[in-house]
């Protein structure tokens, strides 16, 4: 959710100067400059809209609606992620030119600190197989009639992770090279250091000229966030009800309808926090 707020804020900077105006920033030298995020949609509004949309379809259809929404959202953010990756790579002169720029100006981003043996490196390939340990995904499996229903998930999940994360990581590495070179400006944190969560929005605004393409790519970013958020909402509501309230208050204390409302109430409470 924090990442979504930073991304939307960076992409929409300057679009709504009268509605979402921000005071000028004062540099250590005493000079006043326009706030880099002046006119951008604030993070709290982004979070509010995302939470409202996710809560609506989760409360309406529960796990089933979350599963169908996840399917659509996954397709959207995988396609748009690849499109955005190719557009940014083209703007940098191709994959090789982009990587060479990162190697020249930020070589530390292309290597691991310390000794990395082949066995150690290969062990990271086992991480995607831990999909069954994620509570918000494991809960989906509990609704299946047989193990065959989620066999595809175990096989496809590592592939989908690669399709999504490899382009994102490469974009981040390229951005580090551009920032070190001085050709990419990333909005700073209050302490003056570059905001890592704003790197993607900076790359998008720099290398995507079409507002339509920016909008579609942003939809993919939000889809990626919402595809996990809805299942996590369902999971925490179920865990609160079945693992805390029911054992504490008694198995026969609540009807199924009351359990559903207890879970919904706890989800809303967590969202408000």
From TrEMBL:
Which GO biological process annotations does it have? proline transport
Keyword annotations of the record: Cell membrane, Ion transport, Membrane, Sodium, Sodium transport, Symport, Transmembrane, Transmembrane helix, Transport
Which InterPro entries does this chain map to? Na/Glc_symporter_sf, Na/solute_symporter, Sodium:Solute_Symporter
Q: Does the keyword NADP apply?
A: no
Topological category with respect to the lipid bilayer: Multi-pass membrane protein
Q: Name one Pfam family in it.
A: SSF
Instruction: Tell me the GO molecular function terms.
Output: L-proline transmembrane transporter activity; proline:sodium symporter activity
The compartments listed are: Cell membrane
Q: Tell me which GO cellular component terms the UniProt record holds.
A: plasma membrane
Name the family the entry cites: Belongs to the sodium:solute symporter (SSF) (TC 2.A.21) family.
Provide the protein name: Uncharacterized protein
Identify the species of origin. Answer: marine metagenome
């Amino acid at each position: 959710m924090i990442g979504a707020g930073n991304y939307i804020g960076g992409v929409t900077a300057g679009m709504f100067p009268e509605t979402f105006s921000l005071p000028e920033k004062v540099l250590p030298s005493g000079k006043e400059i326009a706030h880099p995020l002046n006119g951008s949609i604030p993070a709290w509004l982004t979070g509010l809209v995302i939470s409202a949309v996710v809560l609506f379809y989760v409360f309406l259809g529960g796990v089933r609606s979350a599963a169908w929404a996840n399917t659509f959202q996954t397709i959207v953010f995988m396609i748009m992620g690849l499109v955005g990756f190719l557009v940014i790579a083209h703007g940098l002169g191709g994959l090789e030119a982009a990587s060479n720029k990162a190697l020249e100006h930020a070589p530390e981003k292309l290597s691991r600190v310390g000794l990395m043996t082949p066995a150690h490196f290969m062990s990271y390939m086992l991480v995607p197989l831990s999909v069954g340990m994620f509570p918000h995904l494991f809960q989906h499996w509990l609704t299946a009639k047989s193990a065959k229903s989620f066999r595809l998930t175990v096989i496809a999940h590592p592939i989908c992770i690669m399709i999504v994360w490899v382009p994102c990581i490469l974009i981040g590495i390229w951005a580090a090279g551009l920032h070190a070179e001085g050709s990419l400006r990333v909005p700073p944190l209050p302490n003056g250091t570059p905001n890592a969560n704003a790197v993607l929005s900076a790359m998008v605004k720099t290398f995507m000229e079409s507002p339509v393409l920016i909008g579609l790519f942003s939809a993919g970013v939000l889809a990626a966030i919402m595809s996990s958020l809805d299942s996590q909402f369902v999971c925490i509501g179920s865990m609160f009800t079945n693992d805390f309230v029911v054992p504490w208050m008694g198995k026969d204390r609540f009807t199924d309808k009351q359990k559903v409302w207890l879970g919904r109430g706890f989800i809303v409470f967590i969202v408000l926090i």
